[in-house]
Amino acid sequence: MRNILLICKKELKSYFASPIAYLLMAFFGLIFGFGFFTATRDFVRFSFQSQMMGQQQPMNVNDQIIRPLLGFASTIALFLVPMISMRLIAEEKRTGTIELLLTSPIKDIEIILGKWLGAVLLFTCVLGMSMLNVAMLFAWGKPDLKPVLVAYLGLILQGACLLAIGTFISTTTRNQIVAGGVTFFVCLLLWLLSWFTAFDSGPASQVVNYISIVTHFENFSKGVLNLKDVVFYLSMIFFSLFITSRAMESVRWRS
Amino acid sequence: MEPNLSSRLTKIMIKVEGLSKRYARNVAVDDISFEVNKGQIVGFLGPNGAGKTTTMRILTCFMPPSAGKATVAGFDVMEQPFEVKKRIGYLPEVPPLYPEMEVGEYLHFVGKLKGIPKGDLAKRVKEVSEKVNVAEVSNKLIGKLSKGFRQRVGLAQAIIHNPDVLILDEPTAGLDPKQILETRQLIRSLAGDHTIILSTHILSEVEHSCERVIIISQGKLVAQDSVANLTNRLRGAESVSLEVEAADGRPNPTEVQGRLEQVAGVSRVMMKDSKDGRLTFEVESLQGRHIRAELARSVVNSGWNLSELRAVGLSLEDIFLQLTTAETKEVGGQK
Ligand SMILES: Nc1ncnc2c1ncn2[C@@H]1O[C@H](COP(=O)(O)OP(=O)(O)O)[C@@H](O)[C@H]1O
Ligand SMILES: [Mg+2]
Question: Where are the domains positioned within chain B?
C-alpha cells in the first residue's frame, strides 16, 4: 500500500510539473463552461416562454441542465483519457526509468496500481472543473443533490475503467504518442459502438452494447445507482489491470 | 592483510552458472558462468553487443534468464527477487532519472522505493549527496543538470540503500575526461563497502578501476582473470596449450605440472583437463618470453609424449583488437 501511494504521488507530481494537467483542466473547463452556458441560456429562455404562455409544466434543473451536461462531460472524457494515460508506462520505457522501478523491491502490480490511481486522481481533478459551473446551479436553483452525485460517481467509474485500458495500452509501447493514439481509437470505437447498437436489439448488438463501456454510464446519468453497472466497471478495471501486469511481465522478457 | 578480512574476501557474493538469454532472433548471453567474491571490483569487459547489459539486467532481476542460474548474496534471482533487489544497487547504461524532479526529491523517492525506513531517509539522502558531491545541486531540477552531475545522481540512487552489490553499466560512457577521472575515483572509494561489477568496452577502464576482469564477446565468456595477469598476457606474454601423454600408462599430474613450472620463462601453469591418461595444460610465459621450444624439450626429455602444443589466446587478442579499435573509434568520434 505504501508503495502504491508512493508511485501515485510521484505520478501526480509529474502531471502537475508539466503543463499537461493545467492544459487538460483548462480545456475541459472551457468546453464544459460553453456547454453550461448554452444549456442554461436555453433553459432560461424556455422557462420564460412557458411562463409567458401560461403553461404550468414544471421545469426541472436536474433533468434539463445537469443530466445532459454530465452526459456531455462523459463524451469529453473519452478525449481526456488518452491524454492522461498515454505517458504512464510508455514514457518510463522510453527514458529507461522503468529499469529503476522494475529493479526495486516493489511488486509490478504496485507500480501499475499506483500509476493508474494517479491517473484516476488527475482525471477527477479535471472533472472537478465542472463543479464550478454545477455549483452555480446549486447557488441559484434547487436541484436534487443525489442524482448529481450518482452521475459524478458514474463519470469517475467510467473514466477509471477507460484509464485502466489506457494503462494497458501504454505498457505495450515505448512511444507515448502511439499509446495515446491507440487509446483514443479504442475510446472512439466504444463510443461509436454504443451508437450503432443502440437502435438494434439483435443478440450480437446486445453483447457489444453490454461490453461497450460507455453504455453503462446511462443509468448513472439518470441518477440511478445500479449495482450491476458498478460491478461491470469494477470488473473491467480489474481485468484491464490484470492484463497490464501480464504485459509488464512481457516487458521484462523482451526488453 | 588481517585474517578476518581475508576470510571475508573469499566469500562468494555473486554466482552465475550456465546463464543464457535468448531473444526471438538472437542469443544475447550464451552459457556464462562466473563468480564474484565479496568486496571485489570486477570489470565486465566486452565490445558493444557482447551481452554485458543483458547479463546485468538478469542479475538485477530486471529480466529473467532463458536458462541457467544466478544468485546474489545467496539468493536466487528467479526465486527470491525481492531479497536480491534489496541488496543490489543498479546504475543502468542510461541513468534512470526523472527530469521534472529536483535532485533531493528524486533521492527521497528512490530511497522510499528501496524501502529505507522513513526515520533514516533524510539522513541517508544527505549522506549519499555528500558522498557523490551532489549536495550543492539538491534543489535543482534534474533536467537542468550537466551530464556529469546526472551520472553522479545516478550513482547516488544506486547506493542510497547501502546495497551489498553495486552493478554499474558503463558508468563512464559519454563523460568528458575530467568527469571520467572523478567517476573512477568515486567508484574506487565505494569499493570497500560494496562488491562492484562494472561493465565497459574500454580496456583501460578495467585497468584503472578493477581487480578482476571478466571478458565476454558475442554472449560467450572468453576469459576471466586478475587484471594483473591479463595485462601481463597482453603485453606480449605468450599463452600455450599443451597436451601430454605418458608413454607408459598415466602421467602424474602434479609431477608434470611441477616439471613445466620449472621451465625457464614460465609464469603460470594451469591444468585444464585430464582424460584417458592425457593431460591438458595451459602455460603462460613471462612478458616477452618464448617458451614453446623449451616446453617441448622438457616434456620429451622427461619421457612423456607431447601430443599437442599450440599457442592460445588468439581469440583474446582478437577481442582486444576489437576493444581497442572500438576505443579509438569513440575517441575519434568525440572530436
Ligand atoms: N530487447 C532486445 N531484443 C532483441 N535483441 C536484443 C535486445 N536487447 C539486446 N539485444 C541483443 O543482445 C545482444 C547483447 O546486447 P547487450 O546485452 O545490450 O550488449 P552490451 O551491453 O554488451 O553492448 C546484442 O546483439 C543485442 O542486439
Ligand atoms: Mg550495454
Answer: 5-232, 236-311
